[in-house]
Design brief:
The complex is a heterodimer.
Chain A: E1 3-7, E2 10-13, E3 19-26, E4 31-38, E5 44-52, E6 55-58, E7 64-70, E8 73-78, E9 87-95, E10 103-105, E11 109-113
Chain B: E1 4-7, E2 10-14, E3 19-25, E4 30-38, E5 45-51, E6 56-59, E7 62-67, E8 72-77, E9 86-94, E10 100-102, E11 106-111
Parallel strand pairs in B: 2-11
Antiparallel strand pairs in B: 1-3, 3-8, 4-5, 4-9, 6-7, 7-8, 9-10, 9-11
Classes of the chains: A mainly beta, B mainly beta.
Chain lengths: 114, 112
Amino acid sequence: SQTIHQWPATLVQPVGSPLSLECTVEGTSNPNLYWYRQAAGRGLQLLFYSVGIGQISSEVPQNLSASRPQDRQFILSSKKLLLSDSGFYLCAWSKGQGRNYGYTFGSGTRLTIV
Amino acid sequence: KNQVEQSPQSLIILEGKNCTLQCNYTVSPFSNLRWYKQDTGRGPVSLTIMTFSENTKSNGRYTATLDADTKQSSLHITASQLSDSASYICVVSAFTGNQFYFGTGTSLTVIP
């Protein structure tokens, strides 16, 4: 069966520090991978999605970036964090185009910028 | 513009009571609609997925309905339990593109 791992679960970082959140998927190949941010009391906002290694689409311009160095690994990064980057970050995967396939979320990372 | 709207924004009910959450969408061409349950501080977990031809789908005490003509869906929770307290998110996908459209969720609190 397929599983998705996301870590760390919680993270407190000072303003201006770098960021690296990692997401990996097991039990499938060539998944579509997604990074979402969920601000308190708000809906999910798509940040990046990837349909293959090295293929990243950005939905929202900001100081975050994403990379996909391996087929089942998706990394969210920042060189200098802002206070506004605080939020709940979710990784998700789907198979193929995702429309008729499962769409599964990771357990999330609570990021607090201080 | 493809949008998903959920109501109510929040809801408080007594344990054992039933409740219904609503989802209206304008996503076109419609492919499928998913309901997720998200516990506080956790990732969303899928409850049901419905395609165009499905009107009703149940998952235990959760029953989802879909009216593709009016572009409305509902999630009915029967005999609520304290563990049902969570945010419920409606997600709609279209046949074109690679995009999922999210509602902002309904926050449900079940009190004893």
